[in-house]
Amino acid sequence: MKKITILITVIMLLTGCGSSTYDKAMENAKVALANREFDEAMALSKLALEEKTKDEKALTMHTYLEEFNEVNKAMDEKAWDVVLKRTEEMEKEEGLPYSIAQELKNISRLASANQKNEKAVSEKMKEIDLLVANQEFQEAQAKMEALQKDEKLKAALEDHSEEINSLSSEISGAVQKTADDEKIKDGKETALTTEKALKEQDTSLKTHYLNKLAQIEIGLSDLKYLYADGVTSQMLEGEAETLKRWDDALNEIYGVLKERLSTEDMARLREEQRDWILFRDYEADLAASEFEGGSFEEVQRLSTLGQLTKDRCYLLVDYYLN
Fold first, then answer.
1. pLDDT tens, position by position, 57-70
2. 86 in any annotated domain
3. Does residue 227 sit in the same domain as residue 194?
4. Which residues are CB-neighbours of 209 under 8 A, at least 6 positions away?
5. CB 159 within 8 A of CB 78
6. Per residue in 15-28, pLDDT tens?
7. Are 211 and 315 within one domain?
8. Which DSSP state fits 185?
9. Model pTM score
10. 163: domain range?
11. What is the domain count for the chain?
């Protein structure tokens, strides 16, 4: 916020009031938008509107940013249905800035995952409730422990912590109360129970790579310092490293598919991959052309390559891995 205030003050001091203030504000707003500095772009578009209240370009930009802020607010409130509905509506809007469109894809994917995780927790809790009602306390306890250890559901579990702790205490008390009356199961039953528990805790190859891709996204936070000062050379370094991480993941997934797919399916995938590479390079060049001749051109190109490579990773995992 302090950075935004300083930037607006500088614009006002350098240009005074009038069309020059509008031009400077819009110019900086576009740069901020391309850099995904949405709060800064919002403040600058507002400044431009104060100079030209009916200007279509400034009004359109400001409206997009207000809608984007509403989506982020819904994310903070964990209103996943609202987020998914609003992102779908915004993605259909013509002229939506590229940076906002890409960020909406990330938000939509995260909201969808969170919604899915919350549903998974609720369903597992219903299963456990039913086991308790049927006095199958040992199995209820095993499922509860497995649920509490499920790292991919960690955030959703926190939202249900009070309910989970209460039910867990109830189960523990019931198990303790009936422990002296239960007979020790024979070796065969124990082996079957252990095998069942292991199968329940085992994750598919698809889940493994979805988790791995999610960890890559989280890990990109260690590059934030490269964007903090808005220095093009540092941003270029950040985008290059981001692209490398997604490209490494794509190569790994592609290697796994080589071992799993039939000869026919692999031949088809190779052809698809060649077409995708042409599409990827075309889209990156197109996005970069908006800054042709400028220092930000290569930053934008690498950013687009990174985003498309990430999207390709998720597509291959979703479609080909089971």
1. 999 999 999 999 99
2. no
3. no
4. 253, 256, 317, 321
5. yes
6. 454 458 999 999 99
7. yes
8. P
9. 0.44
10. 114-201
11. 3
